[in-house]
Design a protein that fits this description.
Elements (H helix, E strand, L loop, with lengths): L1 H13 L3 H22 L4 H14 L2 H8 L8 H12 L1 H9 L8
Length: about 100
């Protein structure tokens, strides 16, 4: 019984796609960069939803760019990237669905 559980655990780990794992880690890192930026422009209650919309709609390249600022203050280029992503149609639709009508620098 114990061996079966161990075997299932190993199989589950083997099924993980390294690219998906890397993307998930990158998006979590990007989240920590985007959240404080967004918090400066929307009410506190909306910052979580706005961050989620931006990170979920960021391309893989955008995620890499955002994640580079983990642990440091985001510069003007990073802030500009956040607003560029927010302006994309899919992100804007997500923001509107969350009741966030204005996210501008």
């Amino acid at each position: 019984m114990r061996a079966a559980g161990l075997l299932l655990g190993v199989m589950a780990l083997a099924a993980c796609d390294p690219a998906q794992v890397a993307d998930k880690v990158g998006r979590r890192a990007a989240d920590t960069v985007v959240r404080p930026i967004v918090a400066d422009y929307v009410p506190a209650g909306q910052a979580e939803a706005a961050t989620r919309c931006i990170v979920d709609n960021a391309s893989a390249e955008d995620v890499k760019l955002l994640a580079q600022d983990v642990g440091v203050g985001a510069g003007s280029r990073t802030v500009a990237n956040v607003f560029r992503i927010a302006a994309q149609p899919s992100t804007a639709a997500c923001l509107a669905a969350a009741g966030i009508t204005q996210l501008r620098a």
